[in-house]
Amino acid sequence: MSCTEHDQGKSLLVERKFYTFAEPPDGMLLESGTRLGPITLAYETIGELNAERTNAVLVLHAFSGDSHVAGRFQENDDRPGWWDHMVGPGKPIDTNKYFVICSNILGSCCGSTGPASINPETGEFYGPDFPMVTIQDMVRAQKYLIDHLGIKKILSLIGGSVGGMQVLRWCADFPEMIRSAIPMATTARHSAQAIAFNEVARQAIMADPEWNYGNYYDGPGPNHGLSVARMIGHVTYLSHEAMREKFGRRLHSSSLSFDVGSDFQVESYLHHQGRKFVDRFDANSLLYITKAADFFDLERGGHNLLVNDALSDVCFLVISFTTDWLYPTYQSRDIVSALKKNGSDVSFCEIEAQGGHDSFLVPNERLNSLISGFLERMYNEYVE
Amino acid sequence: MNTLNNQQIPEMRFDLQVIASWIEPEATVLDLGCGNGDLLAFLKNHKQVSGTGIEQAEEKVARCIERGLTVLQGDFRFEVSDYPEDRFDVVILSQTLQQIRNPKELLVDLLRIGKRVIVSFPNFAHWSSRLQFFFLGTAPVNKQLPYQWYDTPNIRVISIRDFKTFLRISGVRTAREIAINTHSQDYRGKEIHYLKNLRATYGIMMLERVT
Question: What is the pTM of this model?
Answer without folding.
Answer: 0.94
